[in-house]
Amino acid sequence: MTRLRKLTVVGSKLGASYRGVRVVFCSMIFSVIGRMTSGILGVALFAAAGISAFAQDDAAFRYNRLLGRGINLGNALDAPREGAWGVTLKADYFRLIRKAGFNSVRIPIRWSTHASTAAPYDIETGFFQRVDWAIGQALSRNLAAVINIHHYVEMNQDPVQNLPRLVELWKQIALRYRNQPKSLMFELLNEPHDQLDDERWQEVFPTLLKAIRDSNPDRIILIGPAYLNTVDRLDKIQLPPQDRRIIGTFHYYKPLQFTHQGAFWLNDSAPWRGTRWVGTPQERKELRNDFERAATWSKQNHRPLYLGEFGAYREANMEDRALWTRAVAREAEKWGFSWSYWEFCSEFGAYDAAARQWRQPLLNALLDKE
Ligand code: BGC
Fold it and tell me: Residue 252, class by beta-carbon neighbours within 10 Å (0-12 exposed, 13-18 middle, 19+ buried)?
């Protein structure tokens, strides 16, 4: 039943029309100003400016470096109920991730099935406690953590009706975690899509930002574009120029026929089975072009970028998956983007929970080992 539910949810999310353009990348460019702030000239400029606008600017870049190389703890707290999609978080997972050499985790969370549907939309205490535990696991092991609002299906279908609830969810989350270290970061909403198109998302996200800023003026907040956070829409999003504690985010699953071959939640994905990715000059060029565009956005807007999801589904050939994963991770790093692989131990899993071991080709690809 839960499987079916996922099928419906994610299937609707991945309308072929936008998955076709679905791509994500991020880049963090060290700007001249960023470098200057660490030098004598920077100090002088600081003094002259009287306020720490440049330092603020620098903070987002600094925290993005902290995110570094990460992994998504997917299909756990983002399932309708934890465990429904086969993954229940364990303390050991955080230990393994840290020990392998990752710097951060992204913890996707579906709050909407754990909150009242009537105002004031209270989040279940037990669920909050579970999230407290997950955040504690990450931070106490020196893993930076991104939490988000994931799979708020109704918000994408009817943003007008659901916005007040989403705002109240963020107010509660932000208030509860306001005293957490700054290595905990908030991402506004996973992959806006459907009715939440560029224009609507542009209207909506400042309201969410404000709901968080009231209690967390300095927290790093991640924001990505509509159309499933595709890199192709990064330039559609206008971030508030005065708020410098924002990291841009995007997702990358191109070519979709390769990364999602046989994915059961995509209606048309069965014929894609057998699609290869072998790193031809043309394949690499497409990847480079996409990331270069993201880097241009990053540079022009002076915002760091986080590649919050990328990965290839288990049905693809393992050799190709490893090659693609390595290529994407290195391309992200080339531009200074932090990244988070989708995902730890489920259908894209870098870790095989049943065998209790890493899928070595994927781990090596991620961490740039031979
Ligand atoms: C979704 C997952 C899905 C993945 C790849 C994520 O954003 O939350 O359910 O498996 O994208 O399509």
Answer: buried
Pocket test for ligand 1, best of 10, 151, 193 (most atoms within 8 A of CB): 10
User: Does the beta carbon of 310 lie inside 6 Å of ligand 1?
Assistant: no
- pLDDT of residue 107 exceeding 50: yes
Check if 191 is active-site: yes
Closest by CA position to 180, among listed 122, 221, 219: 219
- The structure tokens listed for 261 are 């071959």
Residue nearest ligand 1's atom 9 by CA: 10
Distance of alpha carbon 69 from alpha carbon 325, whole angstroms: 13
pLDDT at 6 over 90: no
Please tell me the distance between residue 121's alpha carbon and the centre of ligand 1 in angstroms. Answer: 26
Give the residue with greater pLDDT, 335 vs 20.
335
The reply to whether the predicted model has a pTM over 0.85 is: yes
Average pLDDT estimate for 264-268: 94
Cis peptide bond N-terminal to 343, omega within 30:
yes
- Residue 322 and residue 143: Cα distance in Å, rounded? 24
pLDDT band, very low/low/confident/very high, at 355 (cuts 50, 70, 90): very high
In this structure, the chain runs to a length of 370
Mutate to test the pocket of ligand 1, among 264, 309, 343 (most ligand atoms within 8 A of CB): 309
The more confidently predicted of residues 19 and 306 is 306
Tell the residue number behind the tokens 């710097």, with chain if given: 103
Sign of the torsion formed by the C-alpha atoms of 189, 191, 196 and 199: positive
Largest CA distance in the chain: 63
Instruction: Indicate which atom in ligand 1 lies nearest the CA of residue 6.
Output: 9
Contact of 152 with 166, CB cutoff 8 Å: yes
Catalytic residue among 82, 168, 187, 191: 191
In the chain, what are the domains? 18-68+176-366 (3.20.20.80)
